[in-house]
Structure formats: structure tokens, C-alpha cells
Amino acid sequence: MPTLRVLFMLKQLCVAALFVITGTARAGIPHFNVSCPGNLDVHADKGGAIYINGKETKLNKINANYYEATGAGVTLSIAINPDGSILVSYTGKHGIHGICE
Fold first, then answer.
1. Cα dihedral 55, 99, 29, 76 sign
2. What is the pTM of this model?
3. How many CB atoms lie under 10 A from the CB of residue 44?
4. Fewer CB within 10 Å, N side or C side of the chain?
5. Which residues pair with 77 in a beta bridge?
6. Pair 68, 52: CB distance under 8 Å
7. Which CA distances in Å does 6 have to 9, 11, 16, 52, 74?
8. Which DSSP category does 57 fall into?
9. Per-residue model confidence as pLDDT tens for the chain (101 residues)
10. Are 87 and 79 in contact (CB under 8 A)?
11. CB neighbours of 12 closer than 8 A, spacing ≥ 6?
12. Coil, strand, or helix at residue 17?
């Protein structure tokens, strides 16, 4: 039978996992505006949502420096470099892809 200490540690681990899943995906996103081929305008508020042509995307945090945002039929790959610069690329239907500027 697990001890109270083990049960307490499991509870803390579950709470920490919920924080990671629910609230921190947006924490590291800096403010940026880019344009992607195919008339895609991308906007992000610091720590906020990412929008493609004015519509909010679904944001997934892969790690502290890499995110993926999905919406409008495309997936954005957002890499934050150590110097704070951002690289945004996209992948659309039928394998269409490119770099956003």
C-alpha cells in the first residue's frame, strides 16, 4: 500500500502536468507579425494567442523554444532562437510549405 508521502508526490505531479497542459503553452510566445506565401497574415501578442488572417489558432508548445499553431488549413512552426529572433514556417494542404517573413 502506498504511503501518504508517495500519494502526495503523485498528486503534486498530476497538478504540475495540468499546468503544463492548460496554461503555459502561450507563456513564451513573443509579439510578432509575419506574412506567409498564399496571403497568410500571422499575428501574435506577447504571451498571447496566435492569429492567422484574424482567426485564432490552436497552439501547442513542443518545448521552450518551439511551438506549433494550427488553423486556417495550415500548421505554423514557430522557432525562437537564443538571440530572441523568430523563424516562422508553414505547411498547408497537399504539402505546400514555405518560410514566413
1. positive
2. 0.72
3. 24
4. N
5. 68, 89
6. no
7. 5, 9, 15, 45, 44
8. P
9. 555 444 444 444 433 443 444 344 446 899 999 999 989 999 999 988 999 999 999 999 999 999 999 999 999 999 999 999 999 999 999 989 999 99
10. yes
11. none
12. helix
